[in-house]
Design brief:
It contains five helices and two strands, in the order E-E-H-H-H-H-H. It has 124 residues and is mostly helical. A two-stranded antiparallel sheet has the order 1-2.
């Protein structure tokens, strides 16, 4: 159920304060990679929740928070996994080619984890 705020009119009656949320396209434009993926997933899996968030104007806020959480986890994974692999696989951190390959590999792993643990969760 949607929580509504009410304001007292001049006639003493309470009237709902209706908010108009942003348009769907405006929300999409303000999101980055993970925010757009979360938005698409929510739209495909829980249309009623998507509509409620859009209608109440909370969709952008929720998707931006989800995107922030996703990038935070992505960065944590990248940092720790790169350091672990440098030590474990004896990679030369000065070698641009080796570090590029390593970062690409770890980036793919981090994206899979982020999608599973942050984006594809139905706790919007």
């Amino acid at each position: 159920m949607v929580d509504l705020e009410y304001m007292k009119g001049s006639d003493g009656m309470l009237y709902p304060v209706l908010q108009t949320g942003e348009t769907e396209s405006a929300v999409k434009k303000s999101l980055g990679k993970y925010g757009r993926k979360a938005l698409k997933y929510l739209l495909q899996t829980d249309r009623s929740r998507y509509d409620e968030l859009l209608r109440t104007g909370k969709l952008k806020t929720v998707m931006l928070q989800r995107e922030e959480d996703a990038w935070r986890l992505h960065d944590q994974i990248m940092e720790s996994e790169v350091q672990n692999r440098i030590e474990k696989e004896k990679i030369n951190p000065v070698s641009t080619m080796e570090m590029t390959i390593l970062r690409n590999q770890v980036g793919m792993i981090a994206e899979e984890i982020v999608l599973k643990e942050v984006i594809y969760q139905n706790n919007y």
